[in-house]
Amino acid sequence: MTEDTTKDAIAKTGPPKQIRTGLTATGVRKASAKSSRSRAREFALQALYQYIVGKNDAADIDAFTRDLAGFHKADSAHYDALLHGCIEGAAQLDVLILPLLDREIERISPIEHAVMWIGVYEFQNCLDVPWRVVLNECIELTKEFGGTDGHKYVNAVLNGLAPQLRSAEVEADRLTGKAK
Question: How far apart are CA 96 and CA 140, in angstroms?
């Protein structure tokens, strides 16, 4: 192809589309693009789902989850903190979540419920993770594993809790224009 032919082709079809690397066709991050903490959240979500739905014992869930393919790529310390912290603090996490729900907690999808636990737990206990990162990670988890619009619900609840649980950080972001 000559340079003129290439220009003619671009003029007819437009510039070539940029390929976004690290995402699937649905916009979800590919496994290869995920951090070890993101993977830990995924495994914790799967384990918490077993806890909520199956009422399984935490130790049994933990042993099962650690045997899943790809677990070795997860941040196991973060996974431990999320799984055991959410299970041990489930009642307290629900007390914070409940006022922001528009229905009984039993009517919330187990995926959304578990993701909200993860978000609230991280807001309270993982102060090294910025609140906006916690929020984004929880939205991504819900997009990948939850229902069609579940991420919007999780976003609303966690966005409602962020000013309460991370007030200084949220206010600082508001003052600099990084958050509404």
Answer: 21
Give dist(CA 41, CA 4) in Å, integer.
51
| Predicted local confidence at residue 108, as pLDDT | 92
Between CA 73 and CA 120 the distance in angstroms is 24
Q: In this structure, what is the dihedral angle of CA atoms 147, 53, 61, 27, given to the nearest 10 degrees?
A: 0
> Which amino acid type is present at position 61?
I
State how far the Cα of 34 lies from the Cα of 44, in Å rounded to an integer. Answer: 15
Q: What's the CA gap between 44 and 46, in Å, rounded? A: 5
* Alpha helix stretches (DSSP H) within 76-166: 76-88, 90-97, 110-125, 131-145, 150-165
Using one digit for the tens of pLDDT, what is the confidence trace for 106-154?
999 999 999 999 999 999 999 999 999 999 999 999 999 998 899 999 9
CA distances (Å), origin 156, targets 89, 139, 153, 161: 21, 10, 5, 9
- pTM recorded for the entire structure: 0.80
* Rounded percentage of the chain residues whose pLDDT exceeds 90: 70
Calpha distance 12→27 (Å, rounded): 28
